[in-house]
C-alpha cells in the first residue's frame, strides 16, 4: 500500500513540536505492516540543504501564482518529496514565521500550495491514500474532494493540537483555485472565513488524533475549540491513537548524551547523571528530589500554575531544572523564582535536544501540568528513563501514566503521579505526594522500573495506523 503523508515539519529535517516527531517516525513504523509511506515537506532552506539536488519528478507552471516543482529524495531511508517554491519557502526564519516570531503574512498561500500539491500528487502518482497532518496540510483532503472527485483516494486527517486551526479571511477563497461549491459550511467555510483544519476534518475519510482520551475530550466545548460539533458529527470516524517514541533515540542504556548509561537493573548509575545535571544548572547537590521541566512556557502547559507553586516545591525539599521558552511573563516569573532560590532552581531559556536527554537521564521526576495535552512526549521519555512523570489527568497524559494510588502501588502497576485539577493547590499536593514517595526508596524504584517496562515504541501504534489504512483502502 502506497501512502502519501503531507506535513509542515518532520524530524530530523525540521522541528518545532511533536508533529515533527510523528511525521518523521511513521514511515519506519508502518513499513513492517506492508505500508510504503512517502512524506511530502515544504522546501525550507534546511530541507533543501539536507536533500541536496534531489530528482525533479513533477512541476506546475502556476501553483497558486508561482512556478513549483517536486524533488524526490529520502528521509531516514524512507521516500521523501520536497515541494520547491522558492518564493514561498526559501526564506530565513522558522517554518511559520520570521526571526522575531511573527507569522509570515502569506502562510495561507504557503500551506494552500502544500495542500494542492499533495492532492495533485496523490492522484497523479497513484497513491492509495493521503494522510494530512494538522492545519498546515488541512486543505489537502479538500482539494482531493473538490478537484479530483471520482479519482481521489481516501484520506486521513490527523489533529495533533486542536488549538491551532489556520483560519483566514474570506478574501483568500477566490485565490485558492477551488470551485464555488467549496464555499459552504460542509466545505472550507468557517465563521465567514476559510478554516484549514476544519476543511480537512470535513473532507477526510477519517479523522485521527494522538490519544484516545483526547479523541473523547475534543467532543466537549472546553477542548473542542469551536469544532466539537464537527467532531461529534463524524461519530466513529474519529479515532485516537497514542504517539510512540523511537527506542533507538530515547534509550538510557545507549544514550550518548547521558554521562552514565543505565537500565532498570542498574538504576544506581543515574546518580552520576543527577550530579552532572545539578552542576550544569548550578544547583546545590543533595539527596532530595530533582524535578525537571522540558516544555513550552505557555498557559496550555499549565506553566502559570507551576510558577505559583515553586516556593512550595523548594520549601518541601525539592529542586528544579527547567528547559523551555515561551510567554515573556512566564519567563519572568520563573526567573524571579530562580533569583529567590539560588542553587535550588536553575533555568535554561530556549531548547537544546542533547540537554533534554541529559535532563531525563538525571532528573528524578518530570512535571507536566498541562491543561490539555493531545498526547505529550516528554512523559513518555520520562517513563523510558526512570524519570517519574507527574502529570495532569488529560489527553495522552491520562492514557500513558498510571497513578501511584494504593491499589496500583500494591499491584506494582503504578508509573507516576496523576492529579486532576490544574490549580496551585492540586499541583502542590501532587508535588507533596511525589516527594513522599521519593523518600520511600523501594516504592520509588518500583515506580521507575514499572515505567521503564512500559512499551511506548511505535510498534503498536504503527499497527493501528496500518489497520485504519487497510479499512479505508480495502473496505470489507
Q: What does this protein look like?
A:
The protein contains 20 helices and 18 strands. Helix content is 39%, strand content 20%. The chain has 2 domains: 2-244 and 459-473, Glycogen Phosphorylase B (Rossmann fold), CATH 3.40.50; 264-454, 3-Layer(aba) Sandwich (Rossmann fold). Helix 1 links the parallel strand 1 (2-6) and strand 2 (36-42). The protein has helices at 18-30, 45-51, 86-89, 107-124, 139-147, 196-203, 212-217, 221-224, 228-234, 270-280, 303-308, 310-315, 328-340, 353-362, 378-385, 395-400, 406-411, 424-438, 441-453, 458-473, and strands at 2-6, 36-42, 55-63, 66-75, 78-84, 129-133, 155-159, 167-168, 189-190, 193-195, 206-209, 238-240, 290-297, 319-326, 345-349, 365-368, 388-392, 417-419. The chain has a 9-stranded mixed beta sheet with strand order 3-4-5-2-1-6-7-11-12, with helices on both faces. Strands 15-14-13-16-17-18 form a 6-stranded parallel beta sheet, sandwiched between helices. It has a 3-stranded antiparallel beta sheet with strand order 8-10-9. The longest helix is centred in the N-terminal third of the chain and has 18 residues, at 107-124.
